[in-house]
Amino acid sequence: MHVLVTGGAGFIGAHACVALAARGHRVSIVDNFANSCRGVLPRLALLTGSAVDCRCLDIRDRAALAELFASTRFDAVIHFAALKAVGESCERPLEYFDNNICGTVSLLQAMSAAGVRRLVFSSSATVYGTPEAVPVREDARLDVTNPYGRTKLVNEQLVDDLCRFDPAFAVANLRYFNPVGAHPSGLIGEDPGGIPNNLMPYVCQVAAGRRACLRVFGGDYPTIDGTGVRDYIHVVDLARAHVDALEYLMDTGRPLTVNLGTGRGISVLELLRAFEYASGRQIPHEIVHRRPGDVAEVYADPSLAARVLGWKAELGLDAMCRDAWHWQSLNPDGYLSRTRPGQRVAASARPPVTAGADAVLRGG
Ligand code: NAD
Ligand code: UDP
């Protein structure tokens, strides 16, 4: 298959490109580099074995998308492109509605016009809001608490309606729990700009000495040790699920909504201990008041994905911490080079030489 990956230069998208290539699929990326760097492209070329076709394009640019779909015959699309910071979405809701919802409509229009009707969509466990019970099943009540979550829920509803009223369309909504980790090569990983919002990249930066201390948000939740419990999933497992979902859509033509998690709840302190073990470093931390909007405990019932896709998370917390730390220590400043909007990206250059790149080149 030739698969268009929107947001393919981002954290999860880049890992999905590697997983697609590993299963023999051809990949093209569109990304406006609003939250990613072109430095990922030569590393993707290394990992996939060929130059990556990438266009610097905003998916809301209907003319540019139409031109792309007219010039290239895609079999399917995986749609990662979105803004994803919950706090920022509360400050700038309209920006999130425009980018995430209008962007999706623009993409669906381009797909429809070109006769491409298979889509895998990046949704999120955030659509469950504060779950009534854990583990959370797909038929749990949906209830979003912030504009980012709203964009995920609205997009799910839009694509569900599209599949209902145009049965030629088949879309898989994948509800991710907490993606962490990095590719084991250390070549690609999470590269947050500014102060990380999420736990694992923050812990990585404390371990690396870039930040002094982790603030643990809340020590008085009704959980195993008082700290928040989440379902962390290795990004390599998550990436593989996208290929499984895509192949399912191609085989069956049936729409699908599934949770992607391990099914295991991990507290903040449990993750800290596992990270300290994996990195051999102490993580200074202090327990502070709860973060507004956080819930005590969320983890998935991932059994539907196992039944329908034959997918199960294989990598545990130790691998998540080991690979996140490997990426962080090889790339203390992430990908470094940032692209400019409007720039067409050619990805044939050799990657910057890092220990990880050397290891891959040596077959390590
Ligand atoms: P990311 O920010 O690393 O990747 C998103 C990519 O989309 C970036 O490269 C960004 O530049 C690009 N992009 C954004 N708006 C665009 C636009 N209008 N046109 C073209 N490109 C655009 O984020 P990620 O962590 O890789 O997340 C990927 C997807 O998964 C997102 O849809 C996100 O909402 C969803 N998700 C992420 C998490 C998480 O914790 N990382 C959890 C649940 C769901
Ligand atoms: N968390 C924390 N300190 C941080 C960032 C996060 O204690 O600097 C906690 C947060 O309260 C939650 C867990 O870590 O219990 C996961 O938070 P994250 O932001 O990574 O994911 P999400 O809130 O989306 O589940």
Alpha-beta classification: alpha/beta
Level of helix content?
Answer: 25-40%
Distance between the termini: 29 Å
* Radius of gyration from the alpha-carbon trace, in angstroms: 20 Å
Helix count, DSSP H or I runs of 4 or more residues: 12
Question: Ligands bound here?
Answer: nicotinamide-adenine-dinucleotide, uridine-5'-diphosphate
Short précis:
The chain is α/β, with parallel strands linked by helices and 364 residues long. Helices cover 40% and strands 15% of the residues. The chain has one domain: NAD(P)-binding Rossmann-like Domain (Rossmann fold), CATH 3.40.50.
Tell me what the structure shows:
- This protein is of the alpha/beta class and 364 residues long.
- It has one domain: NAD(P)-binding Rossmann-like Domain (Rossmann fold), CATH 3.40.50.720.
- 40% of the residues lie in helices and 15% in strands.
- The protein contains twelve helices and 13 strands.
- The chain has helices at 11-22, 40-48, 62-71, 86-91, 93-114, 147-165, 199-207, 235-252, 268-279, 303-309, 317-330, 355-361; strands spanning 2-6, 26-31, 53-56, 76-79, 118-124, 170-176, 178-180, 214-217, 229-230, 232-234, 256-260, 266-267, 285-288.
- A seven-stranded parallel β-sheet has the order 3-2-1-4-5-6-11, with helices on both faces. A two-stranded parallel sheet has the order 7-10.
- Strand 1, helix 1 (11-22) and strand 2 form a beta-alpha-beta unit.
- It is globular.
- It starts with a strand and ends with a helix.
- The structure holds nicotinamide-adenine-dinucleotide and uridine-5'-diphosphate.
